[in-house]
Protein backbone atom coordinates (compact mmCIF):
# COMPACT_ATOMS: atom_id res chain seq x y z
CA UNK A 1 0.00 0.00 0.00
CA UNK A 2 1.17 3.46 -0.90
CA UNK A 3 1.98 4.69 2.60
CA UNK A 4 3.35 8.22 2.55
CA UNK A 5 3.57 8.30 -1.24
CA UNK A 6 3.41 11.65 -3.05
CA UNK A 7 -0.16 12.14 -4.41
CA UNK A 8 1.01 12.17 -8.05
CA UNK A 9 2.16 8.57 -7.67
CA UNK A 10 -1.11 7.37 -6.15
CA UNK A 11 -3.02 6.99 -9.42
CA UNK A 12 -0.41 4.58 -10.74
CA UNK A 13 -0.37 2.74 -7.44
CA UNK A 14 -4.16 2.42 -7.44
CA UNK A 15 -3.92 0.76 -10.84
CA UNK A 16 -1.36 -1.70 -9.54
CA UNK A 17 -3.62 -2.41 -6.56
CA UNK A 18 -6.49 -3.12 -8.93
CA UNK A 19 -8.84 -0.88 -6.95
CA UNK A 20 -12.24 -0.97 -8.55
CA UNK A 21 -13.57 2.44 -7.61
CA UNK A 22 -12.53 6.05 -8.12
CA UNK A 23 -13.43 6.66 -4.49
CA UNK A 24 -12.24 3.40 -2.87
CA UNK A 25 -14.17 1.81 -0.02
CA UNK A 26 -12.53 0.72 3.22
CA UNK A 27 -14.26 -2.47 4.34
CA UNK A 28 -14.06 -3.37 8.01
CA UNK A 29 -16.68 -6.07 8.51
CA UNK A 30 -18.52 -8.77 6.60
CA UNK A 31 -21.68 -10.72 7.42
CA UNK A 32 -22.97 -13.26 4.89
CA UNK A 33 -23.84 -11.23 1.73
CA UNK A 34 -23.22 -7.83 3.34
CA UNK A 35 -20.10 -5.73 3.83
CA UNK A 36 -19.71 -2.71 6.13
CA UNK A 37 -17.35 0.21 5.67
CA UNK A 38 -15.51 2.16 8.35
CA UNK A 39 -18.53 4.45 8.83
CA UNK A 40 -20.83 1.48 9.41
CA UNK A 41 -22.45 1.81 5.98
CA UNK A 42 -23.86 -1.47 4.63
CA UNK A 43 -23.26 -2.73 1.09
CA UNK A 44 -24.86 -5.65 -0.69
CA UNK A 45 -21.86 -7.62 -1.93
CA UNK A 46 -22.40 -8.99 -5.43
CA UNK A 47 -18.75 -9.80 -6.08
CA UNK A 48 -17.76 -11.85 -3.01
CA UNK A 49 -14.13 -10.73 -2.87
CA UNK A 50 -13.69 -11.75 -6.52
CA UNK A 51 -15.90 -14.84 -6.40
CA UNK A 52 -14.21 -16.16 -3.29
CA UNK A 53 -16.62 -15.83 -0.39
CA UNK A 54 -18.76 -18.79 -1.36
CA UNK A 55 -21.00 -19.54 1.63
CA UNK A 56 -21.10 -16.00 3.06
CA UNK A 57 -18.79 -13.55 4.82
CA UNK A 58 -17.82 -14.95 8.22
CA UNK A 59 -20.33 -17.78 7.91
CA UNK A 60 -20.76 -18.94 11.56
CA UNK A 61 -19.91 -22.57 10.78
CA UNK A 62 -16.67 -21.65 8.97
CA UNK A 63 -15.75 -19.15 11.68
CA UNK A 64 -16.36 -21.72 14.39
CA UNK A 65 -14.35 -24.45 12.61
CA UNK A 66 -11.43 -22.08 12.05
CA UNK A 67 -11.50 -20.82 15.66
CA UNK A 68 -11.62 -24.33 17.10
CA UNK A 69 -8.76 -25.57 14.90
CA UNK A 70 -6.72 -22.40 15.58
CA UNK A 71 -6.77 -23.21 19.26
CA UNK A 72 -5.66 -26.80 18.65
CA UNK A 73 -3.05 -26.88 15.89
CA UNK A 74 -2.30 -24.14 13.39
CA UNK A 75 0.51 -25.52 11.31
CA UNK A 76 2.50 -28.65 10.61
CA UNK A 77 3.62 -28.29 6.95
CA UNK A 78 3.43 -31.25 4.58
CA UNK A 79 6.11 -33.31 6.34
CA UNK A 80 3.43 -34.55 8.80
CA UNK A 81 -0.16 -35.54 8.30
CA UNK A 82 -2.87 -33.85 10.29
CA UNK A 83 -6.40 -35.18 10.73
CA UNK A 84 -8.01 -32.15 9.11
CA UNK A 85 -6.15 -32.46 5.81
CA UNK A 86 -6.57 -36.24 5.69
CA UNK A 87 -10.35 -36.03 6.21
CA UNK A 88 -10.65 -33.05 3.92
CA UNK A 89 -8.89 -34.78 1.00
CA UNK A 90 -11.30 -37.69 1.34
CA UNK A 91 -14.37 -35.44 1.54
CA UNK A 92 -13.26 -33.48 -1.52
CA UNK A 93 -12.50 -36.62 -3.53
CA UNK A 94 -15.97 -37.94 -2.61
CA UNK A 95 -17.45 -34.97 -4.42
CA UNK A 96 -15.49 -35.57 -7.62
CA UNK A 97 -16.82 -37.71 -10.47
CA UNK A 98 -14.96 -40.49 -12.27
CA UNK A 99 -11.51 -41.44 -11.13
CA UNK A 100 -10.53 -37.96 -9.90
CA UNK A 101 -9.35 -39.20 -6.52
CA UNK A 102 -5.88 -37.77 -5.79
CA UNK A 103 -5.78 -34.36 -4.12
CA UNK A 104 -2.82 -31.97 -3.80
CA UNK A 105 -3.21 -28.89 -1.63
CA UNK A 106 -1.70 -25.50 -2.42
CA UNK A 107 -2.60 -21.92 -1.49
CA UNK A 108 -3.84 -20.08 -4.57
CA UNK A 109 -5.38 -20.56 -7.97
CA UNK A 110 -2.12 -19.66 -9.70
CA UNK A 111 -0.25 -22.32 -7.76
CA UNK A 112 -2.96 -24.88 -8.52
CA UNK A 113 -2.78 -24.16 -12.25
CA UNK A 114 1.03 -24.19 -12.17
CA UNK A 115 0.86 -27.63 -10.66
CA UNK A 116 -1.75 -28.84 -13.17
CA UNK A 117 0.47 -27.70 -16.07
CA UNK A 118 3.44 -29.44 -14.50
CA UNK A 119 1.47 -32.69 -14.03
CA UNK A 120 0.24 -32.55 -17.63
CA UNK A 121 3.79 -32.16 -18.90
CA UNK A 122 5.27 -34.82 -16.63
CA UNK A 123 2.54 -37.33 -17.41
CA UNK A 124 2.46 -36.89 -21.18
CA UNK A 125 6.12 -36.11 -21.77
CA UNK A 126 4.85 -33.36 -24.09
CA UNK A 127 5.29 -29.64 -23.73
CA UNK A 128 2.68 -27.77 -25.77
CA UNK A 129 -0.45 -26.49 -24.06
CA UNK A 130 -3.58 -25.16 -25.76
CA UNK A 131 -5.45 -22.40 -23.96
CA UNK A 132 -8.01 -19.76 -24.93
CA UNK A 133 -7.51 -16.21 -26.17
CA UNK A 134 -9.65 -14.74 -23.43
CA UNK A 135 -8.27 -16.98 -20.68
CA UNK A 136 -7.10 -15.98 -17.21
CA UNK A 137 -5.47 -18.68 -15.10
CA UNK A 138 -3.19 -16.74 -12.76
CA UNK A 139 -0.34 -14.30 -12.36
CA UNK A 140 2.53 -16.63 -11.52
CA UNK A 141 5.37 -16.80 -13.98
CA UNK A 142 4.04 -20.22 -15.04
CA UNK A 143 0.38 -19.37 -15.53
CA UNK A 144 0.92 -15.96 -17.10
CA UNK A 145 1.69 -17.68 -20.39
CA UNK A 146 -1.74 -19.28 -20.43
CA UNK A 147 -3.50 -15.92 -20.14
CA UNK A 148 -4.89 -14.75 -23.41
CA UNK A 149 -4.78 -10.98 -23.07
CA UNK A 150 -1.85 -8.64 -22.59
CA UNK A 151 -3.70 -6.75 -19.83
CA UNK A 152 -3.30 -9.80 -17.61
CA UNK A 153 0.41 -10.32 -18.27
CA UNK A 154 3.63 -8.53 -17.44
CA UNK A 155 5.95 -7.46 -20.26
CA UNK A 156 8.44 -10.32 -20.03
CA UNK A 157 8.96 -13.77 -21.58
CA UNK A 158 5.92 -15.95 -20.90
CA UNK A 159 7.32 -19.46 -21.09
CA UNK A 160 7.15 -21.58 -24.20
CA UNK A 161 4.60 -23.82 -25.79
CA UNK A 162 1.39 -21.92 -25.07
CA UNK A 163 -1.00 -21.73 -27.99
CA UNK A 164 -4.08 -19.55 -27.78
CA UNK A 165 -7.12 -20.82 -29.64
CA UNK A 166 -10.07 -18.73 -30.87
CA UNK A 167 -12.29 -17.86 -27.97
CA UNK A 168 -15.60 -19.74 -28.25
CA UNK A 169 -17.54 -16.63 -27.22
CA UNK A 170 -21.22 -16.87 -28.21
CA UNK A 171 -21.67 -13.07 -28.09
CA UNK A 172 -18.49 -11.74 -29.73
CA UNK A 173 -17.13 -14.77 -31.55
CA UNK A 174 -17.48 -15.31 -35.30
CA UNK A 175 -19.47 -18.56 -34.98
CA UNK A 176 -22.04 -17.63 -32.35
CA UNK A 177 -22.89 -20.57 -30.10
CA UNK A 178 -21.56 -23.19 -32.53
CA UNK A 179 -18.89 -24.83 -30.34
CA UNK A 180 -17.59 -27.42 -32.83
CA UNK A 181 -16.78 -24.67 -35.36
CA UNK A 182 -14.51 -22.93 -32.86
CA UNK A 183 -13.03 -26.32 -31.97
CA UNK A 184 -11.75 -26.63 -35.54
CA UNK A 185 -9.24 -23.90 -34.64
CA UNK A 186 -7.78 -26.18 -31.96
CA UNK A 187 -7.29 -28.90 -34.58
CA UNK A 188 -5.46 -26.35 -36.77
CA UNK A 189 -3.28 -25.24 -33.86
CA UNK A 190 -2.33 -28.81 -32.98
CA UNK A 191 -1.32 -29.65 -36.52
CA UNK A 192 0.32 -26.33 -37.41
CA UNK A 193 1.95 -25.12 -34.20
CA UNK A 194 2.86 -28.28 -32.26
CA UNK A 195 4.67 -31.52 -33.15
CA UNK A 196 1.20 -33.10 -33.29
CA UNK A 197 1.47 -34.18 -29.66
CA UNK A 198 0.39 -31.90 -26.81
CA UNK A 199 0.63 -31.88 -23.03
CA UNK A 200 -2.88 -30.62 -22.58
CA UNK A 201 -5.63 -28.08 -22.75
CA UNK A 202 -6.80 -25.75 -20.00
CA UNK A 203 -10.02 -23.75 -19.80
CA UNK A 204 -12.78 -22.57 -17.52
CA UNK A 205 -16.32 -23.48 -18.54
CA UNK A 206 -17.46 -19.91 -17.88
CA UNK A 207 -14.59 -17.44 -18.17
CA UNK A 208 -14.52 -15.39 -15.01
CA UNK A 209 -12.02 -12.57 -15.39
CA UNK A 210 -12.78 -12.76 -19.12
CA UNK A 211 -16.28 -11.42 -18.46
CA UNK A 212 -18.64 -14.32 -17.66
CA UNK A 213 -18.28 -15.84 -21.12
CA UNK A 214 -19.96 -19.28 -21.25
CA UNK A 215 -18.02 -21.39 -23.73
CA UNK A 216 -20.12 -22.11 -26.83
CA UNK A 217 -22.25 -25.27 -26.74
CA UNK A 218 -20.49 -28.45 -27.71
CA UNK A 219 -17.06 -26.82 -27.65
CA UNK A 220 -15.52 -28.70 -24.74
CA UNK A 221 -16.59 -32.22 -25.77
CA UNK A 222 -15.09 -31.64 -29.24
CA UNK A 223 -11.85 -30.16 -27.91
CA UNK A 224 -11.38 -32.76 -25.17
CA UNK A 225 -11.55 -35.46 -27.86
CA UNK A 226 -8.95 -33.72 -30.06
CA UNK A 227 -6.59 -33.11 -27.17
CA UNK A 228 -6.75 -36.72 -26.02
CA UNK A 229 -6.16 -37.95 -29.56
CA UNK A 230 -3.02 -35.78 -29.57
CA UNK A 231 -1.80 -37.45 -26.36
CA UNK A 232 -2.77 -34.59 -24.03
CA UNK A 233 -4.79 -34.27 -20.84
CA UNK A 234 -7.71 -31.93 -20.19
CA UNK A 235 -7.52 -29.47 -17.32
CA UNK A 236 -10.66 -27.80 -15.96
CA UNK A 237 -10.00 -24.57 -14.10
CA UNK A 238 -12.83 -24.54 -11.55
CA UNK A 239 -11.34 -21.70 -9.53
CA UNK A 240 -14.45 -19.57 -10.09
CA UNK A 241 -17.02 -22.04 -11.38
CA UNK A 242 -16.65 -24.72 -8.68
CA UNK A 243 -18.61 -25.62 -5.56
CA UNK A 244 -22.09 -25.20 -6.99
CA UNK A 245 -21.90 -21.56 -8.03
CA UNK A 246 -23.09 -22.26 -11.58
CA UNK A 247 -26.17 -23.98 -10.13
CA UNK A 248 -27.55 -27.51 -10.41
CA UNK A 249 -24.07 -29.07 -10.51
CA UNK A 250 -21.12 -29.04 -8.17
CA UNK A 251 -18.63 -28.38 -10.99
CA UNK A 252 -18.88 -26.17 -14.06
CA UNK A 253 -17.56 -28.93 -16.35
CA UNK A 254 -20.61 -31.07 -15.53
CA UNK A 255 -22.78 -28.51 -17.32
CA UNK A 256 -20.77 -29.12 -20.51
CA UNK A 257 -20.94 -32.91 -20.17
CA UNK A 258 -17.16 -33.50 -20.00
CA UNK A 259 -14.92 -35.27 -17.51
CA UNK A 260 -11.50 -33.61 -17.13
CA UNK A 261 -8.28 -35.38 -16.19
CA UNK A 262 -7.13 -32.62 -13.84
CA UNK A 263 -9.30 -30.13 -11.94
CA UNK A 264 -7.97 -27.01 -10.25
CA UNK A 265 -9.87 -25.18 -7.52
CA UNK A 266 -9.30 -22.15 -5.29
CA UNK A 267 -11.28 -19.07 -4.22
CA UNK A 268 -14.68 -20.48 -3.12
CA UNK A 269 -13.04 -23.64 -1.75
CA UNK A 270 -11.97 -21.73 1.38
CA UNK A 271 -14.58 -18.93 1.61
CA UNK A 272 -11.65 -16.48 1.74
CA UNK A 273 -9.07 -18.61 3.53
CA UNK A 274 -5.91 -19.11 1.45
CA UNK A 275 -6.64 -22.60 0.16
CA UNK A 276 -6.49 -24.26 -3.24
CA UNK A 277 -6.28 -27.78 -4.62
CA UNK A 278 -5.48 -29.88 -7.66
CA UNK A 279 -7.44 -33.09 -8.10
CA UNK A 280 -6.41 -35.73 -10.61
CA UNK A 281 -6.43 -39.44 -11.34
CA UNK A 282 -4.08 -41.98 -9.73
CA UNK A 283 -2.50 -42.63 -13.17
CA UNK A 284 -1.58 -38.97 -13.68
CA UNK A 285 -0.51 -38.60 -10.05
CA UNK A 286 1.82 -41.58 -10.54
CA UNK A 287 3.96 -39.34 -12.76
CA UNK A 288 4.98 -37.61 -9.52
CA UNK A 289 6.19 -40.88 -7.99
CA UNK A 290 9.65 -40.43 -6.57
CA UNK A 291 9.47 -36.68 -7.14
CA UNK A 292 9.10 -34.00 -4.54
CA UNK A 293 5.85 -32.09 -4.13
CA UNK A 294 6.40 -29.65 -1.36
CA UNK A 295 4.31 -26.69 -0.27
CA UNK A 296 4.88 -25.18 3.18
CA UNK A 297 1.31 -24.06 3.83
CA UNK A 298 -0.62 -26.38 1.48
CA UNK A 299 -3.16 -28.37 3.48
CA UNK A 300 -2.67 -26.20 6.53
CA UNK A 301 -4.93 -27.54 9.35
CA UNK A 302 -6.77 -24.25 9.90
CA UNK A 303 -7.55 -23.76 6.20
CA UNK A 304 -8.48 -27.44 5.86
CA UNK A 305 -10.90 -27.14 8.80
CA UNK A 306 -12.44 -24.09 7.11
CA UNK A 307 -12.59 -25.92 3.76
CA UNK A 308 -14.38 -28.85 5.39
CA UNK A 309 -16.95 -26.48 6.89
CA UNK A 310 -17.53 -24.95 3.43
CA UNK A 311 -18.35 -28.39 2.01
CA UNK A 312 -20.78 -29.11 4.85
CA UNK A 313 -22.54 -25.78 4.39
CA UNK A 314 -22.81 -26.10 0.59
CA UNK A 315 -24.44 -29.51 1.01
CA UNK A 316 -26.66 -28.79 4.00
CA UNK A 317 -27.91 -25.44 2.71
CA UNK A 318 -28.33 -26.93 -0.77
CA UNK A 319 -26.47 -23.95 -2.17
CA UNK A 320 -26.05 -25.28 -5.67
CA UNK A 321 -29.84 -25.56 -6.04
CA UNK A 322 -30.17 -22.15 -4.40
CA UNK A 323 -27.73 -20.68 -6.96
CA UNK A 324 -29.75 -22.23 -9.77
CA UNK A 325 -33.04 -20.78 -8.44
CA UNK A 326 -31.86 -17.28 -7.49
CA UNK A 327 -29.59 -17.14 -10.55
CA UNK A 328 -32.47 -17.94 -12.92
CA UNK A 329 -34.58 -15.21 -11.30
CA UNK A 330 -31.73 -12.68 -11.48
CA UNK A 331 -30.93 -13.57 -15.10
CA UNK A 332 -34.52 -13.08 -16.14
CA UNK A 333 -34.80 -9.75 -14.31
CA UNK A 334 -31.56 -8.57 -15.93
CA UNK A 335 -33.00 -9.64 -19.27
CA UNK A 336 -35.98 -7.39 -18.53
CA UNK A 337 -33.61 -4.52 -17.82
CA UNK A 338 -31.93 -5.10 -21.19
CA UNK A 339 -35.27 -4.46 -22.89
CA UNK A 340 -35.35 -0.97 -21.42
CA UNK A 341 -31.67 0.03 -21.64
CA UNK A 342 -30.13 -0.18 -25.11
CA UNK A 343 -26.68 0.06 -23.60
CA UNK A 344 -27.02 -3.54 -22.39
CA UNK A 345 -25.62 -5.66 -25.20
CA UNK A 346 -25.72 -9.05 -23.53
CA UNK A 347 -26.85 -10.74 -20.33
CA UNK A 348 -25.38 -14.18 -19.69
CA UNK A 349 -24.02 -16.82 -17.37
CA UNK A 350 -25.39 -19.54 -15.16
CA UNK A 351 -26.37 -19.80 -11.52
CA UNK A 352 -24.77 -16.98 -9.57
CA UNK A 353 -22.00 -16.42 -12.10
CA UNK A 354 -23.56 -13.79 -14.31
CA UNK A 355 -22.34 -11.07 -16.65
CA UNK A 356 -23.94 -7.95 -18.15
CA UNK A 357 -22.03 -6.48 -21.08
CA UNK A 358 -22.44 -2.79 -21.90
CA UNK A 359 -21.99 -1.58 -25.48
CA UNK A 360 -22.32 1.82 -27.14
CA UNK A 361 -24.13 0.28 -30.08
CA UNK A 362 -25.79 -3.12 -30.15
CA UNK A 363 -24.88 -3.63 -33.81
CA UNK A 364 -21.15 -2.75 -33.66
CA UNK A 365 -20.83 -3.99 -30.05
CA UNK A 366 -18.41 -1.17 -29.33
CA UNK A 367 -17.52 -1.60 -25.64
CA UNK A 368 -18.98 1.02 -23.27
CA UNK A 369 -16.04 1.01 -20.87
CA UNK A 370 -16.42 4.43 -19.24
CA UNK A 371 -20.16 3.87 -18.78
CA UNK A 372 -19.49 0.53 -17.09
CA UNK A 373 -17.17 2.19 -14.59
CA UNK A 374 -19.67 5.01 -14.02
CA UNK A 375 -22.58 2.66 -13.33
CA UNK A 376 -20.47 0.61 -10.95
CA UNK A 377 -19.48 3.75 -9.08
CA UNK A 378 -23.10 4.91 -8.80
CA UNK A 379 -24.21 1.47 -7.65
CA UNK A 380 -21.50 1.48 -5.02
CA UNK A 381 -22.75 4.85 -3.80
CA UNK A 382 -26.26 3.35 -3.66
CA UNK A 383 -25.00 0.39 -1.63
CA UNK A 384 -24.33 -2.40 -4.15
CA UNK A 385 -20.85 -3.71 -4.96
CA UNK A 386 -20.19 -5.54 -8.23
CA UNK A 387 -17.10 -6.48 -10.20
CA UNK A 388 -16.16 -5.72 -13.78
CA UNK A 389 -14.12 -7.60 -16.29
CA UNK A 390 -13.75 -8.76 -19.86
CA UNK A 391 -10.98 -7.67 -22.19
CA UNK A 392 -12.47 -4.18 -22.51
CA UNK A 393 -13.57 -3.80 -18.89
CA UNK A 394 -17.17 -3.39 -20.04
CA UNK A 395 -18.80 -6.40 -18.37
CA UNK A 396 -20.40 -6.31 -14.93
CA UNK A 397 -19.47 -9.43 -13.06
CA UNK A 398 -22.24 -10.47 -10.70
CA UNK A 399 -20.97 -13.29 -8.50
CA UNK A 400 -22.23 -12.78 -4.96
CA UNK A 401 -21.83 -15.09 -1.99
CA UNK A 402 -24.05 -18.08 -2.74
CA UNK A 403 -26.46 -17.19 0.09
CA UNK A 404 -27.66 -14.21 -2.02
CA UNK A 405 -31.47 -14.13 -1.90
CA UNK A 406 -34.20 -13.31 -4.42
CA UNK A 407 -34.82 -10.06 -2.54
CA UNK A 408 -31.10 -9.22 -2.90
CA UNK A 409 -31.35 -9.98 -6.62
CA UNK A 410 -34.36 -7.64 -6.95
CA UNK A 411 -32.56 -4.90 -5.05
CA UNK A 412 -29.48 -5.22 -7.27
CA UNK A 413 -31.56 -4.97 -10.46
CA UNK A 414 -33.52 -1.95 -9.14
CA UNK A 415 -30.29 -0.18 -8.22
CA UNK A 416 -28.75 -1.02 -11.60
CA UNK A 417 -31.86 0.39 -13.26
CA UNK A 418 -31.42 3.68 -11.39
CA UNK A 419 -27.69 3.81 -12.16
CA UNK A 420 -28.21 3.09 -15.87
CA UNK A 421 -30.91 5.76 -16.05
CA UNK A 422 -28.46 8.32 -14.68
CA UNK A 423 -25.99 7.80 -17.55
N1 LIG B 1 -7.96 -19.19 -12.35
C1 LIG B 1 -9.04 -18.40 -12.42
C2 LIG B 1 -10.17 -18.83 -13.28
C3 LIG B 1 -9.09 -17.22 -11.70
O1 LIG B 1 -10.18 -16.44 -11.79
C4 LIG B 1 -8.01 -16.85 -10.89
C5 LIG B 1 -8.03 -15.57 -10.07
N2 LIG B 1 -8.81 -14.56 -10.50
C6 LIG B 1 -6.90 -17.69 -10.85
C7 LIG B 1 -6.91 -18.86 -11.56
C8 LIG B 1 -5.71 -17.34 -10.01
O2 LIG B 1 -6.03 -17.46 -8.67
P1 LIG B 1 -5.15 -16.70 -7.54
O3 LIG B 1 -5.41 -15.25 -7.68
O4 LIG B 1 -5.66 -17.31 -6.27
O5 LIG B 1 -3.74 -17.07 -7.81
UniProtKB/TrEMBL annotation:
EC number of this enzyme: 2.6.1.44
Cofactor: pyridoxal 5'-phosphate
Keywords, comma-separated and alphabetical: Aminotransferase, Mitochondrion, Pyridoxal phosphate, Transferase, Transit peptide
Subcellular location: Mitochondrion
Molecular function GO terms recorded: alanine-glyoxylate transaminase activity; pyridoxal phosphate binding
Chief place of localization: mitochondrion
Signal sequence segment: none
Enzyme type, top EC level: transferase
Domain of life: Eukaryota
Gene Ontology biological-process annotations: glyoxylate catabolic process; L-alanine catabolic process, by transamination
TM spans (from-to): none
GO cellular component, one term: mitochondrion
Family: Belongs to the class-III pyridoxal-phosphate-dependent aminotransferase family.
Complex and partners: Homotetramer.
Protein name in the entry: alanine--glyoxylate transaminase
Organism (species): Gonium pectorale (Green alga)
Full-protein positions shown: 340 to 762 of 762
Amino acid sequence: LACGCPPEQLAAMAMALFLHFKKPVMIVEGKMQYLYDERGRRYLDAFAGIVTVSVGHCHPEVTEAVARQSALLQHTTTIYLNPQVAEYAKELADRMPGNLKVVYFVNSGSEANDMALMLARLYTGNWDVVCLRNAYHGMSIGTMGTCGQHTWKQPMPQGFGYHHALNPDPYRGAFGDDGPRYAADVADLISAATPGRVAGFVAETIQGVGGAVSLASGYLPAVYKMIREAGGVCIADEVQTGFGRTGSHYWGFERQGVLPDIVTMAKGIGNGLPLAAVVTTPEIAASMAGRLHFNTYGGNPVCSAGGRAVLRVVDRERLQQHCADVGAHLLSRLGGLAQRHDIIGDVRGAGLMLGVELVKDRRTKEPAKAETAAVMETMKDLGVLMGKGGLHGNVFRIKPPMCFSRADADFLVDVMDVALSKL
